[in-house]
Every structure is written in C-alpha cells, then in structure tokens.
Design a protein that fits this description.
Distance between the termini: 29 Å
Helix content: 55-70%
Largest sheet: 5 strands, mixed
Number of helices: 5
Order of helices and strands: HEHEHEHEEH
Radius of gyration: 29 Å
Strand order of the largest sheet: 3-2-1-4-5
Number of strands: 5
C-alpha cells in the first residue's frame, strides 16, 4: 500500500509541475500583453479626454437646440411604450482572469434587472453567455480579443445603435466596462452615453453664430464620433484590466501550485521513509526468526 501511495503522490507532483509551467507561461504572455495595452490606453485616454473637454465646453450653450441627443429634447414624448434602454457590456472571450468578468457582469445585471426588455450589445463571449443564461439575448455581439478591436469594428456597431436610437426603439444608451486604476485596482463602471444631460447655461453663453454651420449640425456630427471614442476607451480600459487580472490570477495559481507541490514532496518523503523503516523492520524480524 505504501508503494501505491508513493506512486500516486509522485504522479500528483508531476501533474502540478506541469501546471506550474503552464501558469508561468500564461503569466509571461499576460505581462507582455499588459505592457502593450497600457501604452495603447495612454494614447487613447489623451484623445478621449480631448473630445470630452470639447463636448463639455459646447453642450452648455446648446440648451435651446432641438436634438435627439440632448436630454431636454429626448425622443420619449411620443405616445406609446417607452423606448428600451441599451447596454453595451465589455467582457473577455476567455476565462482564467480572476473576477474580471464576474464583477462587470454582476454589476450590469443589477442595473438591468427590473427593466422592460433591455437591449444588450456584448463584447466578449463571457458576457454573451452569462446574459443568455438569464434570458437576456445580445442584439449585437463582437467576440474578437479586446486588444484587437479598433475603429473598423466599432463604427458599424455604433451606426446600428444610432439607427435604433433615431427610430425611437432605444431611449437611453449605457456603457458598462472595467476601469483600470492600477495593477491591483479594477472597478466595474456603467456610464450613461445618451441622452446627454445639459448643465446650467454659463454666463456669457456663445451665440449660434459661433457654430458653423449651425449648432445642431455640429452636434449631430460630433456625437457619433464621441460615442466611438467612448466605446474605444472602454474597450482599451477593459483590455488592460483583463490582462492585469489574468497576470495576477496566474501568479497566484503558480504560487498555490508551488505550495501544494511542497506539501506533496513532504508527504512523499514521509511515505518513502515509512516504507524504508518497514522494510528494515521486516529484515530484522526475519533475521531474528532464523536464529
């Protein structure tokens, strides 16, 4: 029995050693991808902040402009059922990244529960599968790796969402993603993209002649670009969070495997020593019996 137990322990040690190799390789890959995605995020944040500042300057002076994109002129005034909300949810297509996917999915689920048939646009298979199991099916879906998604993939998605918004099938648009605040700090965030709330008009507000050709035209041209950048920024943030979470998860898995292997080595040594002691005892007993 001792020999059989030792064989099992030795086999377990070998399996854990293989797991260590895999987790170490995945940690190295995630570290490289994390470095690349952080550079992309830094560049994206600069452009994102610029258009946010531009829009923040422009919006207060458009309170009397008729636009479907502004909260004081929403498309909910018509009779009939109120248009549904649409949530863009960004997750990964792969697992093994700790609580990265779980946090954003549960956070979004808490917000859409109780709403009347909310529409979903999902990035990543994990989010699509999670909501499908709860009978929330994705209107649009993109399963490419987050770090490979760019303007080419974003534009048609934003175009379809805006078509539904103009057709009054969508009354509000939200973006749910993971915000990167540091290597060990990731926060699920949901921001409202449409309609845009208008703050109080500042003193010395600009006249319509300051906008060329007109305020509504400038706004209608700016908003689709703004939504594309918001979505690209959310994807960039989530991509960094994904690889950061996976690197940490693989590092923890490797450490756990190393601890478990150490315990198994101790158990193997004890079993081997017990087997040797038993063999010596049997030899001594046999010698005593021959006297």
């Amino acid at each position: 029995m001792a020999g059989h137990g030792m064989r099992d322990i030795k086999r377990s040690i070998k399996s854990i050693h293989s797991i260590e190799k895999i987790t170490n390789a995945m940690e190295l890959v995630s570290t490289v991808k994390l470095r690349k995605t952080r550079k992309a995020l830094d560049q994206n944040r600069k452009l994102h902040d610029q258009i946010e500042d531009m829009l923040a300057e422009m919006i207060p002076y458009l309170s009397d402009v008729e636009s479907i994109y502004l909260k004081n002129h929403t498309n909910h005034k018509s009779k009939g059922p109120e248009p549904r909300s649409c949530y863009i949810v960004i997750t990964s297509s792969k697992g093994l990244c700790g609580s990265f996917n779980t946090n954003i999915m549960k956070s979004t689920l808490a917000k859409i529960m109780g709403q009347t048939s909310p529409l979903l646009v999902t990035f990543g298979n994990k989010g699509k599968e999670f909501f499908a199991k709860r009978h929330f099916h994705a209107l649009l879906h993109e399963n490419s790796p987050l770090e490979s998604i760019g303007s080419t993939e974003i534009k048609p998605i934003i175009g379809q969402i805006l078509s539904l918004y103009h057709a009054k099938e969508i009354g509000a648009l939200y973006l749910s993603y993971s915000k990167f605040n540091g290597l060990s700090s990731q926060k699920p965030v949901t921001v409202k993209l449409l309609p845009i709330a208008i703050p109080s008009k500042k003193a010395g507000a600009r006249k319509h002649s300051d906008f060329n050709p007109c305020p509504a035209a400038v706004l209608n041209h700016t908003i689709p670009k703004y939504l594309e950048l918001k979505l690209l920024n959310g994807i960039a943030e989530s991509s960094v969070c994904e690889h950061s979470a996976r690197r940490i998860a693989m590092e923890n898995a490797k450490e756990n495997a190393d601890r478990l292997k150490g315990k198994l080595v101790q158990s193997y040594n004890r079993a081997r020593q017990a087997a040797i002691t038993q063999e010596i005892a049997e030899i001594v007993s046999g010698a005593e019996a021959l006297r």
